[in-house]
Amino acid sequence: MKEQIQFLPGDPDISIVKLTDDSRQVVPGALFIAIKGESADGHRYQAEAIERGAVALVGEEPDRGLGVPYIRVPDSRLALAQLEAAWYGHPSRKMIMIGVTGTDGKTTSTNLIFRILKAGGLSTGMISTVNAVIGDEQLDTGFHVTTPNAQEVQSYLAQMVSTGLSHCVLEVTSHGLYQHRVSGCEFDIAMITNITHEHLDYHGSMQTYRKAKGRLFYELLQGDRKPGGPEKAAILNRDDSSYDYLHRLTKVSQISYGLSPEANVRAIEIESGAEGLKFIAEGPGYRQPVISRLHGEFNAANILGAFAAGVEGLGIKPEKAAEGIASLTAVPGRMEHIDLGQPFTAMVDFAHTPNALSKALKAARQMTDGKVIAVFGSAGLRDREKRQLMAEVSVKWADETILTAEDPRTESLDDILEEMANGARTAGGVEGFGFWRVPDRGQALQFAVQRAEPGDLVITCGKGHEQSMCFGDTEYPWDDRVALRAALAELLGVAGPEMPRLPTS
């Protein structure tokens, strides 16, 4: 547990009672870490922090002589992560840590590894962008979340240690890596799903984005092998374009997975259908049948990567890994079925990149002989290039496309939809026949289910498990699963939830 810590050599009378990078959260006895953020610079609030009771400061700029001890560091975010880890007693050193990163499939893979470890008899916790699981307790990790901040990560890990857990599976985003939110963690196993077009608004280029992901694998070198723990290992996707880069970067043991004959663990004889997936996981000395209720051939890669992490990385028996995989019937907001008795299939998925949308729609195509009707948008203040790309993908793989709101933030929703419509037209779509613009997302879902005929499939993408949608600077309550149920209930004339309201309603 956290406690007062004397962090300042030469100042034995100064005890720190709290760490914070938010001057508004400073209390008497706090250590304030000044961080340069995207919209605010914490160094400007150092005087305010002292007024609120800060007894010491950490920052990147020269000491301003404000009358309290000042520690200058090259990177305040890194310092914060390391301080938080020390504050909580370095909990990651007391567990086996498995990190999962990638563009698409992180949450699913994290949940799969968690189930595999549980089936293997290991006391395991999990931190994903959906929730944190600590023993019998599930904690919501937020609305629009990436990896939780350093304080939250270390707090969750400390709770896991105090609960007696021996392993933790942690979903790690590129933002979390770039901003050092997990730099206070010492990982033993790192897995990559894939690296595709996403977050270029933040990282600037695919090279920088790839480098951010690669940090998880490079940092496997930190810390020694833990007593009784596995050899440090990287689980790499042999079929993904990231493989060559990560293969060169990674300096620990490597385990590859994929369809490639060169992969250490291969998936063969893949069958995908309405009931889920079947394949054979083939590795050194075994051919293990795997059955999953998850849908879409793309999930075969997520399952196989999790299998490789559990079996080859952590020594779990193949049959136990298969048992864990079979126990995961759904992941919140990932190809999640919504059924109110309607004569067509309705699903919610988190696909919000061109690659993920393509895979989701291909999977949907395999699940129906009728039309595939896709509903999605593209976020404001984010990667603009993907707006046209996603519309092009949908025109190619869906029969009907409905473009709508998805966190426009301070951008014009009409302008975003026009960019997407341009992409749809470029791919041969005809507005009013193959694709439509319906700015209000609730109305878009109502329109979609009204157009669906028996045997069709309606899929709404981009929001998944998220619990809010941002217009301007305000987060409005929104859940695609609730909204889709509301649209279906209205269509069927049955009891159901009320449609959430947005500013576009």
- So what's the overall shape? globular
**Rg, nearest Å:** 24 Å
Order of strands in the sheet with the most strands?
Answer: 8-7-6-9-5-10-11-12-13-14-15
Residues in helix, %: 25-40%
CATH level-4 homologous superfamily of the largest domain: Mur-like, catalytic domain
Q: How many strands?
A: 23
The main β sheet shows up as: 11 strands, mixed
If you consult CATH, what is the topology of the largest domain?
UDP-N-acetylmuramoyl-L-alanine:D-glutamate ligase
* CATH classification, class level of the largest domain: Alpha Beta
Question: Structural class, please?
Answer: alpha/beta
Number of domains: 3
The number of helices is 15
The CATH level-2 architecture of the largest domain is identified as 3-Layer(aba) Sandwich
